[in-house]
Write a structure and sequence with these properties.
Layout (H helix, E strand, L loop, with lengths): L6 E5 L5 H14 L4 E5 L7 H6 L6 E4 L14 H24 L4 E5 L1 H6 L5 H9 L6 E6 L4 H6 L2 E4 L20
Parallel strand pairs: 1-5, 1-6, 2-3, 2-4, 4-5
Length: 178
């Protein structure tokens, strides 16, 4: 039987990957689908988590507990090791959830960056995605994806930065960038 649930990759250096994933989430909720929206590497309150956490009847918003809120490149070796363990624990929870069949759409926001930064093992994530129930749609976001992800993806959207206010020294703005 052909798989009904597809794999989407939203990748690239540009702003909009999480926004696209949140948009698909809203569309799915509008059609009474159940959504698991998981965010990795984000510790700040963001507009999407504020609004999505209000849909408790059809949506689970999940972030792994992270003990450190710094960017990875600003962490000490000890903080980075703790963050890797925090992310791994969160992934273990999500892996179990992905197999339940409770969710129509699962968003794994920034999971590709977790792989790139060697916080999670690509083979494990690929295996979990391949073995999910047939109806489950999955979205993975991040800056880059490996050829292995390209090979199994059904949708690949590349969002590249052509121009961004950050390049002029303008900091991220509440409600626009986060």
């Amino acid at each position: 039987m052909e798989r009904q649930g597809r794999l989407h990759l939203y990748i690239g250096s540009g702003k909009g990957k999480t926004t696209a994933a949140a948009g698909l989430t809203i569309r799915a909720l509008g059609h009474d689908m159940k959504v698991l929206f998981a965010q990795f590497l984000k510790n700040l309150e963001t507009g999407e988590n504020i609004i999505l956490e209000g849909f408790t009847d059809k949506l689970c918003f999940f972030r792994p507990v992270q003990h450190h809120t710094k960017f990875l490149w600003n962490m000490t070796e000890q903080e980075l090791a703790q963050t890797k363990e925090d992310i791994r624990r969160g992934w273990e929870h999500l892996r179990q959830q992905m197999q339940t069949g409770l969710w129509d759409l699962i968003v794994l926001d920034e999971i590709l960056d977790c792989i790139q930064c060697q916080l999670l093992e690509e083979e494990d994530i690929l295996k979990t995605i391949k073995e999910r129930p047939e109806k489950v749609e999955v979205v993975c976001t991040g800056r880059n994806a490996s050829q292995a992800f390209y090979n199994i993806a059904d949708y690949i959207s590349v969002i590249n930065a052509v121009k961004h206010p950050y390049d002029e020294g303008i900091k991220a703005r509440r409600g626009i960038e986060y």
